[in-house]
């Protein structure tokens, strides 16, 4: 919601308190959930199984019970009645995943990762139904999609054998998300569920899957050719009608338009190549893409200007707001949600229209580059320089004229293509530093002269890249590109601090300064700087994924070895403090001293926890700047960048998982303390009148059912988890000892930490048995992968050393001879899997298990088994 033109005294103070309360709560939830996952993945052996399971289940139960209590206690406060229980249930949902990961890790049953996510989705569903929280539902949708993708991944070979391509898995994913979208829309109409984020994410997944299938994978298919096209056309027409006529959502319509542009690139491109083979087909194809984007932009803006008669769902974004127009609050005296003055009328298209036009510009630029590269017009670096300068000048001239939207789109593509050609022309003719300076000046000139937001954004990306290259060459003049690529793709921890951290910190501070400056300048000059700010934001986010942090206890040693690097680490951690002062200090007269000074002081303490994870501090800085400068998109970008960084941070190897858990968990606890202070301090200082809470209203029927759903879901989780523990402990105690030969390797699992990928030698024998088995007579037309049963039992007999060897396979565990042991096997992706394909071990102990030659199992009479430990060549435990 935008700021109204009228404000009550103290409305900004109320808005800041509300923002701090919600941000500290949700940030604490995310960090504590991430800490739990890192702690489980670390596989810390200093705690017994009972201690680990009790601690995880206790924290999970505490979160769920707190959510149920908060829902009942806050039933008389509509503003927080669902936000706090929703946040606590989201935390419980993340801890549920950590508990299941711990279960699979402890008993070595977590190799089928899709089963972990499938059980996670099943057990999380009662809480999602009870919470009525968009965050919990989005978590459930994410978990369900990951489970589906992992399940399909184990059957890719079978799908491709039967259907000659991956169309069927992609149609499965599109159908699954289409059903989820249908359910979300029904909930919006029936229970006023929020439609601001969920439907847009689901629509983007559906369109992306179908478009990718049409553009790439359908090229290799024959039997299913055309199925993807029919599905995409039906989805586009159906969703387009619904989101235009029934419930208008211009963002989803823009997503559908982007899909049309991409599909037309494939369809029309094939037709043009058949009609006129050669590179000249790229030019009309580029013109078509730009014309489509211009038409779609006009269509969307026309829809935004037409009021819609149906009443939107609760929390839905109004059409005018999604079109980039300000929306006044219903009550001018209501507390505001953003703090900056009302912005000047927007002269650029809405953000989703800019993305659509940007996609068209990117594709058109690529087609122009293809044309220039293969037409023979440019055959040397000097020719590339000349052609680049001509295209840049022509593009800028078109943009500065009174040309229509189509020609302006052409001008953007020409100017950006010209810059790429200039970079190519400079690649071998001069030094890296001189070339970077020239590219920086060239992009700055194009940025200043080209009055187009998309061209300025693309030029801003080149400015960021050139600046990064200058820093790199300054740090290491002899740095070769192959070393840079090796560092990029290899995550070389020795170079992370040296190369990526200076870029990330410098870029982050530059982005924050440009954002603040664009707001302070206002009007036209400030508006001109925004594309550069966004280019720096996106560039920094890519760099921070590669930049490792340093724990606080290692900072003195780093200072002695590399003072400049230590200063950069500290500067990155202090960025949220500077962002808070930039937005709070100008409003110190309307805010209390507790807010003006308390927020920076709290962030200063939290800076200790951002040292090992700079991306968290950067995301928090974007969140603060976005809220304080009334730029909601920057705040949303901060949330998205935080979620993305936490996912990438898990796989960074320069900080141990246990240290990550410690720092993230400590930051979460401190954030919860700050959340309590946000509520307590104003009441102690009497800057907020204590609410005179009357008697709570009676518990309504829906609230009663939601509470029972939370408690019932908790009971179900505990029953399933402890039942699984009991079954596995029983098998470990009574199962027969079986030793199998193996061959390991070493990656890192999703959520479960480091593991050895196992390939039991017995699997080869089972494959030989299956290949030699007689085919069923009625299945001669089926591929062998489907004609044989996927699961079965192999009979094992021990040799003279006690190592089990396969004797035969059969469909049931019985019958078998006296000395034989039945062991169940499964076929996944046309490969035989015995018990598990992974052995989880504590982080940092890879060398210990590299010499493993055998695996020791406990096998029950029915063929079920658990992997217990690794054995060396001498059959002794490692």
From TrEMBL:
The keyword Ligase does not apply. Residues 17-137 form the DUF2157 domain. Keywords: Membrane, Transmembrane, Transmembrane helix. Residues 350-680 form the DUF4401 domain. Pfam families: DUF2157, DUF4401, GDYXXLXY. It comes from Achromobacter seleniivolatilans. It comes from the Bacteria. This is GDYXXLXY domain-containing protein. The chain crosses the membrane at residues 24-42, 54-72, 84-104, 116-132, 139-162, 168-188, 200-220, 226-243, 250-273, 279-300, 356-377, 383-399, 406-426, 432-450, 457-475, 498-519, 531-552, 564-585, 597-622, 634-651, 663-685, 705-726. Coiled coil: none annotated.
């Amino acid at each position: 919601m935008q700021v109204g033109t009228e404000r009550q005294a103290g409305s900004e103070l109320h808005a800041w308190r509300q923002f701090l309360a919600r941000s500290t709560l949700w940030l604490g939830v995310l960090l504590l959930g991430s800490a739990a996952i890192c702690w489980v993945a670390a596989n810390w052996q200093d705690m017994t199984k009972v201690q680990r399971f009790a601690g995880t289940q206790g924290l999970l139960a505490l979160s769920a019970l707190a959510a149920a209590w908060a829902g009942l206690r806050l039933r008389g406060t509509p503003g927080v009645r669902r936000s706090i229980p929703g946040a606590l249930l989201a935390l419980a949902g993340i801890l549920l995943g950590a508990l299941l990961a711990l279960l699979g890790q402890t008993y070595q049953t977590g190799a089928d990762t899709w089963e972990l996510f499938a059980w996670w989705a099943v057990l999380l569903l009662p809480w999602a139904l009870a919470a009525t929280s968009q965050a919990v539902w989005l978590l459930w949708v994410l978990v369900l999609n990951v489970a589906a993708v992992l399940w399909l991944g184990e059957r890719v070979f079978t799908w491709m054998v039967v259907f000659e391509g991956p169309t069927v898995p992609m149609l499965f994913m599109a159908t699954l998300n289409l059903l989820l979208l249908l359910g979300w829309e029904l909930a919006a109409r029936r229970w006023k569920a929020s439609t601001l984020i969920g439907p847009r994410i689901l629509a983007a997944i559906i369109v992306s899957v179908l478009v990718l299938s049409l553009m790439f994978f359908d090229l290799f298919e024959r039997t299913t050719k055309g199925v993807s096209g029919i599905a995409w056309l039906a989805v586009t027409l159906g969703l387009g009608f619904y989101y235009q006529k029934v419930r208008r959502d211009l963002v989803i319509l823009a997503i559908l338009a982007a899909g049309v542009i991409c599909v037309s690139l494939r369809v029309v491109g094939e037709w043009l190549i058949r009609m006129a083979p050669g590179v000249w087909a790229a030019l009309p194809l580029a013109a078509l893409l730009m014309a489509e984007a211009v038409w779609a932009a006009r269509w969307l803006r026309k829809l935004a200007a037409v009021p819609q008669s149906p009443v939107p769902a609760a929390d839905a974004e109004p059409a005018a707001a999604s079109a980039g127009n300000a929306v006044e609050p219903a009550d001018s005296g209501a507390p505001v949600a953003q703090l900056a003055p009302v912005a000047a009328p927007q002269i650029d298209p809405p953000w989703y229209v800019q993305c659509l036009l940007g996609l068209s510009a990117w594709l058109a630029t690529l087609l122009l580059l293809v044309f220039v590269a293969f037409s023979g017009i440019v055959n040397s670096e000097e020719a590339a320089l000349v052609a680049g300068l001509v295209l840049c000048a022509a593009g800028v001239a078109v943009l500065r004229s009174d040309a229509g939207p189509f020609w302006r789109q052409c001008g953007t593509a020409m100017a950006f293509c010209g810059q790429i050609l200039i970079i190519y022309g400079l690649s071998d003719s001069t030094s890296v530093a001189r070339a970077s300076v020239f590219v920086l000046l060239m992009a700055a000139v194009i940025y200043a002269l080209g009055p187009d937001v998309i061209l300025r954004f693309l030029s801003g990306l080149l400015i960021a890249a050139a600046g990064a290259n200058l820093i790199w060459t300054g740090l290491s003049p002899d740095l070769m590109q192959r070393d840079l690529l090796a560092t990029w793709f290899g995550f070389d921890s020795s170079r992370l601090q040296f190369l990526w951290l200076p870029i990330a910190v410098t870029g982050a501070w530059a982005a924050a300064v440009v954002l603040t400056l664009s707001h302070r300048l206002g009007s036209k000059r400030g508006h001109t700087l925004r594309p550069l700010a966004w280019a720096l934001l996106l560039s920094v986010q890519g760099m921070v994924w590669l930049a490792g942090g340093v724990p606080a206890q290692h900072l003195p040693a780093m200072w002695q070895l590399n003072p400049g690097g230590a200063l950069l680490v500290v500067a990155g951690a202090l960025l949220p403090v500077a962002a808070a002062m930039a937005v709070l200090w100008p409003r110190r007269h309307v805010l209390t001293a507790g807010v003006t000074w308390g927020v920076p002081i709290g962030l200063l303490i939290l800076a200790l926890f951002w040292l090992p994870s700079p991306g968290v501090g950067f995301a928090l800085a974007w969140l603060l700047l976005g809220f304080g400068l009334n730029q909601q998109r920057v705040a949303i970008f901060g949330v998205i960048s935080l979620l993305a960084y936490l996912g990438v941070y898990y796989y960074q190897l320069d900080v141990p998982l246990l240290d990550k858990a410690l720092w993230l968990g400590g930051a979460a606890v401190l954030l919860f303390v700050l959340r309590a202070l946000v509520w307590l301090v104003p009441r102690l200082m009497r800057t907020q009148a204590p609410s005179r809470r009357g008697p709570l209203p009676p518990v309504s029927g829906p609230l009663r059912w939601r509470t029972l759903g939370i408690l019932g879901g908790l009971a179900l989780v505990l029953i399933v988890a402890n039942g699984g523990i009991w079954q596995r402990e029983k098998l470990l105690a009574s199962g027969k000892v079986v030793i199998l030969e193996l061959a390991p390797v070493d990656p890192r699992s999703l959520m479960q930490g480091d593991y050895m990928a196992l390939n039991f030698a017995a699997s080869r024998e089972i494959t030989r048995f299956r290949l030699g088995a007689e085919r069923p007579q009625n299945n001669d037309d089926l591929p062998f992968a489907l004609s044989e049963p996927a699961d079965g039992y192999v009979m094992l007999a021990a040799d003279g050393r006690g190592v089990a060897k396969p004797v035969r396979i059969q469909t049931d565990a019985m019958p078998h001879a006296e000395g034989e042991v039945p062991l169940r096997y499964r076929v996944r992706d046309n490969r035989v899997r015995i018990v598990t394909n992974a052995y989880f071990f504590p982080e940092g102990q890879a060398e210990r298990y590299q010499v493993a030659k055998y695996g020791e199992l406990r096998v029950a009479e029915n063929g079920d088994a658990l992997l217990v430990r690794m054995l060396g060549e001498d059959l002794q435990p490692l």
